[in-house]
Amino acid sequence: MAHRTRPRRHPIPVVARRRPGPAIRFGGVVLVLVGLLFGSFAAGISGHASGALGARGTFAVERCEHKATTQRGGGRGADTVECSGTFRPSDGGSPRTGLDIDRDYEPGRRVTASCDFIGICYKIDRVNACGWFSGLLAALLLVCLGGPGAVRGAAWLTERYARGRAIQGRLVKGLFWAALGVFVVFLVLRNAL
Predict the structure, then answer these.
(1) Average pLDDT over residues 19-45
(2) Which keywords label this protein (predicted)?
């Protein structure tokens, strides 16, 4: 009888599994920071566009300057228009000159606006505020997604936090559908008005 030799099997190398804790914590921190940054812009602009924040009054557009992309540092993109003028508060305060407004208008136009403390005025436009509010909801969604991972790390994935993950899932779904719904309302109103 001939002796058969079996092919020699090489042992499968054992690869040490990396702990997902630091990656989950880092991802959570990134999501929270992006959510807070975007949320701060969305909350501020939404508040000014709705008229809830800032000083309300009338903005008189005095001059508009068209700037080509080459004046802004080159690159591709549409030319921009920067308009400035005088803001007269509705509460009877002194007029403020040389302020900028967030959109472009023809000189001589008067716009109901809200101005912040650094000198930027926003046209009071509830449709625009609706769009920024949907952005605020999306930013809250990012904070809700990243917060537990940033605080708990890999422990958030254990059985101990199963109920917390279920609550987080419901919050994320609710915020997602609310943000999407408000954004659809914004699109409908923007195209209808």
Answers:
(1) 90
(2) Membrane, Transmembrane, Transmembrane helix
- Residue-wise pLDDT for 153-171, tens only, equals 888 888 888 899 999 999 9
Q: Which amino acid is at 9?
A: R
Number of residues written out for the chain: 193
Q: What whole-number distance in Å separates Cα of residue 114 and Cα of residue 93?
A: 14
Q: 171: which 2 tokens?
A: 């919050």
Taking each continuous run of H as one helix and of E as one strand, the counts in the chain are 3, 5
DSSP structure string for 114-178: EE-TTSEEEE--HHHHHHHHHHHHHHHHHHHHHHHHHHHGGGGGSGGGHHHHHHHHHHHHHHHHH
Q: Which of 15-29, 139-153, 170-184 has the weakest average pLDDT? A: 15-29
120 vs 103: CA distance, rounded Å? 11
Q: How far apart are CA 159 and CA 164, in angstroms?
A: 10
∠126-59-189 over CA atoms, to 5°?
20
Taking the CA atoms of the chain, what radius of gyration do you get in angstroms? 27
Q: How high is the mean pLDDT of the chain?
A: 85
Question: Partners of 77 in the beta sheet?
Answer: none
SS3 91: coil
Residues 155, 156, 159, 161, CA torsion sign: positive
